[in-house]
Amino acid sequence: MTQAEAGAEFSLFDDGTMGANPYPAFAALRANAPVMKIGTAGLWAVSRYDDVLRVLRDPATFSSEVSIDVLAGEPARPSMIFNDPPVHTRLRGLLARAFTPRMVELQRPAVQAYCDDLVAALLAQEEADIVAGLAYPLPVMVIANMLGVGDGDLATFKRWSDAIIQNVGVLLMMGDDGSLDGINREFDRYFKARLDKLRAEPEDNLLSGLVHAETDDGTLGEEDLLLICRLLLVAGNETTTGLIVNSVRVFSEFPHVVTELRARPELLESAIEEVLRYYAPFAATFRRATRDVEIGGVTIPRNDRVIPLMASANRDEQQFQRPDEFIIDRDPNRHVAFGMGIHYCLGAPLARMEGEIALRTLLPQIRGLQISREPDAAALLRPGGPDTLFVRFER
Ligand code: HEM
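That is the input. Now the predicted structure with protoporphyrin IX containing FE docked in place:
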């Protein structure tokens, strides 16, 4: 196959025909055009495991400051995911200080209680929507809990969360059209009041930990704190929804996985790693070349944007044996679903815990499950997956 033919099979931003099963197209790319220009807008897809790692591990050459403002010569707005050192180092250091293993562990009883309620409600239905019933509410409730958002405020919090998540890509690529101004004002007003309260009366949650964190130059400023609240909403919700949705897809496609996990629950942790590899929720990210750079025999010009395809890297036959098979106890399993290098996912332990508790609650109560309505294929590659995923359980 020529590069042009591989390109014809692959267009990342098309109408979604890739969604249902992009993996044959990724394999064609790895074999024939591992670093390939997409369209005319200066975008390059990188599909091999080693090349994806090289991009993620070299922030000086492959910058996370990708927004349209930066291309126009303006400084990147502080946001952590879309910043390089030193801004990134400072923000990540601050958040990591509060996002400790203890803080994650503190969520366990709440996560278990949410899962008990949500799973019971799902199993009471003949046909249930896994997204609305579990995969979507669970991560939102957990973040809300970590930020100390009260139960009565949860619906508003979800509305903000949806609006911010849905607009983040547009904001980044097309610039700020002001569409989020109203939501941002509401969000800031609410959290400013929360921050004032926490300053006076500390609580045992992540946000309170951040409010009282001592830094070299005193405590954290209000702007930093608001930014971290927004970041947690964006980074932690859709992706974790995707992990739960993708686990369900695997259970429906490979019924023996459910049988085996029921017989050997100790395999659940490695099964979750395999779900992350097999169907990576965060399929790809963005970087910007800071200079003309050669990779895979191709020169990417300065300021072109690079798309490391983690979902493709996770199926690279040079890295994984039998990459298109779901192997419950795959070992080693060095997938890149949580990224790599300085931006490696800070929430990985929390996401793993949420996935593990959700599945450990569901699996003993079912003998199997089947997806009962064709999901929206175009949405399967989005971080949170489709808006609905209906299943029937075998009890
Ligand atoms: C299965 C679920 C998740 C997946 C697959 C995932 C994936 C990722 C990936 C691939 C990155 C790196 C992006 C890049 O390099 O451009 C990342 C970064 C990040 N994630 Fe996650 N994530 C998940 C859940 C979470 C959760 C639950 C949280 C927090 C509540 C979280 C917080 C973050 C943060 C703060 C960053 C930015 C780190 C930095 O820029 O230094 N993630 N995540």
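The two ends are 47 Å apart (CA to CA).
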